[in-house]
């Protein structure tokens, strides 16, 4: 068994934890392949996105930094090329690092340390999706609940086409590694776009739920929503097009069907690893970039500090290296960077990603006594809010803070649905102060807010200027050298 295992890092887009059976007994999605990985692997019970929106969350997982440091403020902000990533660390340790699927990198650097990408990305690579805070809470058609009206069956769509290419290229990469007899360890990031809305699926997967009575959301809408929730209601158009029960059920059924489709893809990857003899020496990691409220509290999609939006599923699997079980400690996507680096034998990297922002939890996976990881921090600067919100989870408690709005404190052990705000309860004053000091002590909030606001205004101007005279993009163009494919490949056997 190699000291440097292969790493297969599989990621869903907008998959919330509460719909999976390894997180909730009443979950309705059907995921036999993920269930098998969870049964034989480690389930991280309290894993969190560092920002419940795509670009900042993914920048955090690759860099080990929080959004306030890598400054990918939203889905239109550049991920700067000078920031070291897990791909840099692992390449320096001898790995080949490859991506198949979505990264949502914004800016000229579309690799960020990876050797190559097997597909292009799903979304724009420019500053297109920039919304300055000066606009106030604004409704956007592209992120509106109006799209729930098209939830249900489809013949095909862009997401299905994209994920099919991601799967094909991923399997092709694994097979090529065996054909070419590589001894070099690899890090393959397979990143699908399902089950991101629009919630649509084909009959094969929709039909798997013919006998399932799709449940409506359990948690009712707040009678007095928090200001950040009110901002998101405007952004998502909740009051303009409130979904009826039939629409909610169709949306949830399609979401579950998309998850089942994704689950089949995961099963194919695992089966191929076994078939090719790569399984025993490959650590498989599965997670998502953020969650989805899926109608809970009357909320949809992401961008919120509530559990449905912030919590992500996370499974680690390699029975020969990692003893199966469940870990209750809090971790975040940013912790993946140093954990992957340590797993791959990379040199000390804490000075390059910032040990105060993330930390390896490999010791936690290995059940070592020296592991002290039990914290997750989230920051949100993206569309749908008009100033930052910040949150921290330590142990059983989660604290959320926004300027000029009430703070929130929840005991998630006793109140997993976050129904009882304890922020004004004298009995919890000490834990609130502890978490508040730990969270806000990291920042000069006023300076950070000014910096984020100015950058959004600048980006909006740049996008408008660059969009003239033919426009611009930094979209990744996958290159395949036909002269090195198949029988024309250099030193490549025809069969193994």
Describe this structure as you would to a colleague:
The chain has 496 residues and is of the alpha/beta class. The chain is built from 14 helices and 15 strands. The chain has helices at 32-40, 54-63, 67-70, 86-92, 158-179, 203-206, 227-236, 245-276, 307-310, 336-343, 350-353, 362-365, 429-440, 445-466, and strands spanning 6-12, 42-48, 96-101, 116-117, 152-153, 186-191, 200-201, 282-288, 311-312, 314-317, 325-332, 375-380, 389-394, 397-402, 408-411. Strands 1, 2, 3, 4, 6, 8, 9, 10 and 11 form a nine-stranded mixed β-sheet that branches. One of its GO terms (molecular function) is sulfuric ester hydrolase activity. InterPro entries: Alkaline_phosphatase_core_sf, Choline-sulfatase, Sulfatase_N.
Task: Characterize the largest beta sheet: strand count, sense, and whether it forms a barrel.
Answer: 9 strands, mixed
Arithmetic mean of pLDDT = 92
Distance between the termini: 21 Å
Which overall shape is indicated by the principal axes computed on the Cα atoms? Answer: globular
How many H/I helices?
Answer: 14
Strand content: 15-25%
The total of beta strands comes to 15
SS-based class: alpha/beta
Unreliable stretches: none
Radius of gyration, CA atoms, in whole angstroms: 22 Å
- What is the chain-wise order of helices and strands? EHEHHHEEEHEEHHHEHEEEHHHEEEEHH
Q: Percentage of helical residues? A: 25-40%
Task: Please tag this protein with its features.
metal ion binding, 14 helices, metal-binding, Choline-sulfatase, sulfuric ester hydrolase activity, 496 residues, four-stranded antiparallel beta sheet, hydrolase
């Amino acid at each position: 068994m190699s000291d440097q295992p292969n790493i297969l890092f599989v990621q869903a887009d907008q998959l919330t934890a509460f719909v999976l059976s390894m997180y909730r007994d009443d979950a309705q999605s059907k995921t036999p392949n993920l269930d098998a990985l969870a049964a034989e692997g480690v389930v991280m019970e309290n894993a969190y996105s560092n920002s419940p929106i795509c670009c900042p969350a993914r920048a955090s997982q690759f860099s080990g930094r929080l959004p306030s440091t890598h400054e990918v403020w939203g889905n239109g902000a550049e991920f700067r090329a000078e920031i070291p990533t897990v791909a840099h660390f692992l390449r320096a340790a001898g790995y080949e690092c490859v991506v198949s699927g979505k990264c949502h990198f914004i800016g000229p650097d579309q690799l960020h340390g990876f050797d190559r990408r097997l597909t292009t990305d799903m979304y724009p690579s420019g500053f297109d999706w920039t919304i300055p805070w000066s606009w106030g809470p604004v409704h956007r058609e592209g992120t509106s609940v109006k799209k729930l009206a098209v939830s249900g069956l489809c013949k095909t769509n862009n997401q299905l086409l994209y994920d099919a290419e991601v799967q094909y290229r991923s399997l092709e990469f694994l097979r090529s590694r065996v054909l070419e007899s590589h001894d070099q360890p690899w890090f393959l990031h397979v990143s699908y776009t399902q089950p991101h809305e629009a919630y649509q699926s084909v009959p094969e997967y929709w039909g798997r739920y013919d006998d399932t009575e799709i449940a409506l959301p359990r948690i009712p809408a707040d009678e007095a929503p928090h200001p950040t929730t009110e901002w998101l209601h405007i952004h998502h158009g909740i009051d303009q097009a409130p979904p009826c029960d039939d629409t909610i059920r169709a949306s949830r059924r399609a979401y579950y069907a998309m998850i089942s489709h994704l689950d089949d893809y995961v099963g194919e990857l695992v089966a191929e690893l076994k078939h090719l003899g790569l399984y025993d020496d490959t650590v498989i990691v599965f997670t998502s970039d953020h969650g989805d409220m899926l109608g809970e509290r009357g909320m949809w999609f992401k961008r919120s500090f509530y559990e449905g939006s912030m919590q992500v599923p996370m499974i680690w699997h390699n029975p020969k290296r990692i003893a199966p079980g469940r870990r209750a400690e809090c971790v975040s996507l940013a912790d993946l960077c140093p954990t992957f680096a340590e797993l791959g034998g990379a040199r000390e990297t804490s000075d390059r990603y910032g040990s105060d922002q993330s930390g390896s939890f490999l010791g936690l996976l290995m059940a070592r006594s020296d592991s002290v990881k039990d914290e997750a921090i989230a920051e949100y600067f993206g569309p749908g809010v008009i100033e930052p919100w910040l949150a921290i989870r330590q142990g059983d408690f989660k604290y959320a803070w926004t300027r000029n709005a009430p703070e929130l404190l929840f005991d998630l052990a006793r109140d997993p649905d976050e129904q009882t705000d304890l922020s004004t309860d004298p009995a919890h004053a000490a834990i609130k102060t502890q978490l508040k000091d730990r969270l806000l002590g990291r920042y000069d909030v006023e300076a950070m807010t000014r910096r984020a606001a100015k950058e959004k205004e600048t980006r909006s101007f740049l996008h408008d200027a660059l969009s003239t005279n033919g426009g611009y993009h930094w979209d990744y163009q996958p290159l395949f050298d036909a002269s090195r494919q198949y029988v024309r490949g250099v030193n490549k056997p025809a069969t193994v």
